[in-house]
């Protein structure tokens, strides 16, 4: 049962996996193409999108048995893996190329053997295991930085890996190409497209929100830095301007006081000094540190000071950057002619300048101010490590950049994610959305396909319940319901044509069931073509059809019957074999007051039997006389069945005598039957009926056993012969030999006392089977007699090979020997041939001494007829046999 469920679900699982990967890859490409190049913090990398696209193609090609498509996808995965080796937007850089190369090897070597299925199942299981581990990483929030810098993209790769593994694993449970409706595929694509587009939209929204936070971070940092610098610059500008306007008497004292106050009050100022035009330090409020002294006295800085004595200028010392003590050096001119001071130099601590207090919401980034591509200054960093732009790009796959103005000067800032934990919650939520969407799409596909299959099965059940599986015609019971409904609603005349194909059974038996069914299909087509549009046609049984003609006259039904006969006489060509058929048609009318479809059809069936008796290829109308005979036969049949079951049939015996001595040498067992009123039913009435209904088999078995048991019990003469008539069906059944053997052993009757009679026609109809059965009876020791000899066909051609001991000359010859001299040559020729082949002759129908004398003179051995004895019951036979003389 589990295998059946897996096989049922596997088709939908593989299709869902294939289309999920295909659509994810396509959406990933579109997402990549429509993003601004400067903002490519991707929810799915270009490499992952390409890999998903090729995996989906491979799964689709494998399930559809288009292996060239699977191999093409394998080559695409090789190219994707090679590209991924050098791609900058990867998560786990070595992992995706490895997966691509592994899948490419499997897809390129794909096939349909057991080995290929094992490989697919193994690789699929590996991908499922890896995906489950990745799920654990995502949902447990394990530390993965810097290997995983974007958990959203990593969560997408996890889902792609999982559905790849499931698709490959479930493909192994059912390799049959799927048969899906266009509606189910369209709904699957729609549901997956909606789920994947929602995932991309939400992921992009999350990434954009994080990017926006980064941009806000940079803008805020630039604003704070600019404000602090502006405040510092404004204060220093006011300072040097005031110095330029002081009187000579108080300048030096005020400068000393101001420099001490500024150095103390402004944390950014590391040192202040006043220089003359010759770049001699005149005074400084505090002692300069060693590092600042080294910075100030760098040749490049000295040169810069000398060049900017009379101008306002600022510069960042490259030497300070290298020493990890970044300094911004400001130069202001002092233009007071009353003093020798010409230049104010201020050294600002850039570390302190970059130390910014931010709200926690924004404090998830490492931010940098770009002085040049080689010098990026970190903002609010404990360790002030200068980094180049290329190093930053290589260390962080994703960054946010923004340009801002600081003191009117354009400054470029960069922010990189300090901790990807900000992505984890978004990754989990979005992954849940995508998984739920894929599961929903799978369930939708299963639901639509289950409904489709259910509808198909219901349609098939309706088709099976209402239409014949071979001809696609209406079933008999359906037509009967229509007829009954019509009879209730209408009083007009109607006709039913019961059509039986002549000679169909030999065709079906010799050419096989397939040819027979094809022939029936062609017959149904011709019957439909030849029938009126208002007619209803049904297949009644194997080679019988019913045509209902509502509101029709006798003339109309006759014309339809003639058209049907003509249509069926034309050649049928089945599998290059020319076949010919005719039909017998019985026609019944409603005028005979039928009250149900069953009675209506029964009347037509009776009329069809009459058409058969006419030789076939004809039609006959049902008459009241046919109905009476049918009812009589039906009543008689039922009574006969009861008589057989209750063993009420009797056996009468007609002796046959030696022609010379006229002594009884045996008897012929004859079946006799009284009806329920005690009247004898003639054998020529109930025996043909039993032959027609199939009751002849139990009837013959009953007579055979009764005759053997009675003769064995009451007639003990060792040479007394019991002759029993055989029916054609007894010869055909194959049970005759075992039945005779069993009864002879049961009642201890020697086989030599048993004689079996059969007509010449029975042997000719099935000579091979009859000869074999008769030969076996003769081997046992039984005698074989040919009854009614001379009345059948081809008797002379079979006479020499006939496995018979006795020829019984028919009574028709006996009656004419004394009245018709022309019959003498034929009679004498038959006697002469039989005697010449050493066959004994028994003459039937002897009714006078003259007839007996005629056959005695011609050396016939035995005789039977009313001249000697009439058929008699057992009691009378015993009295006759036990008389001392006859």
Could you outline the blueprint of secondary structure elements for this entry?
Blueprint lengths: L1 H33 L11 H18 L3 H19 L9 H14 L5 H27 L10 H21 L10 H64 L5 H15 L3 E7 L5 E3 L6 H7 L2 H9 L5 E4 L1 H5 L4 E7 L9 E7 H5 L10 E8 L2 E5 L9 H7 L3 E8 L2 E9 L3 H46 L7 E2 H14 L5 E8 L1 H8 L1 H18 L5 E6 L2 E6 L4 H16 L2 E3 L2 E3 L2 E8 L7 H17 L4 E4 L2 H22 L4 E9 L5 E11 L5 E2 L1 H11 L2 H19 L6 E5 L2 H6 L2 H12 L6 E6 H6 L1 H14 L2 E7 L5 H5 L6 E4 L1 H6 L7 H13 L3 E5 L4 H9 L4 E3 L9 H9 L4
Helix pairs in contact: 1-2, 1-6, 1-7, 1-14, 2-3, 2-4, 2-6, 3-4, 5-6, 6-14, 7-14, 16-17, 17-18, 20-21, 22-24
List keywords for this structure.
31 helices; 886 residues; single chain; alpha/beta; six-stranded mixed sheet; eight-stranded mixed β-barrel
Short overview:
Helix content is 56%, strand content 17%. It contains 31 helices and 26 strands.
- Please count the beta strands (DSSP E, at least 2 residues each): 26
Oligomer: single chain
Strand order of the largest sheet: 18-19-21-22-23-24-25-26
Q: Quickly give the structural class.
A: alpha/beta
Low-confidence stretches: none
Secondary structure: helix percent? 55-70%
Give the biggest beta sheet. 8 strands, mixed, barrel
The gross shape turns out to be rod-shaped
Assess the beta-strand content as a share of residues: 15-25%
Question: Helical element count?
Answer: 31
State the end-to-end distance. 83 Å
What gyration radius follows from the Cα positions, in whole Å?
58 Å
Mean pLDDT: 83
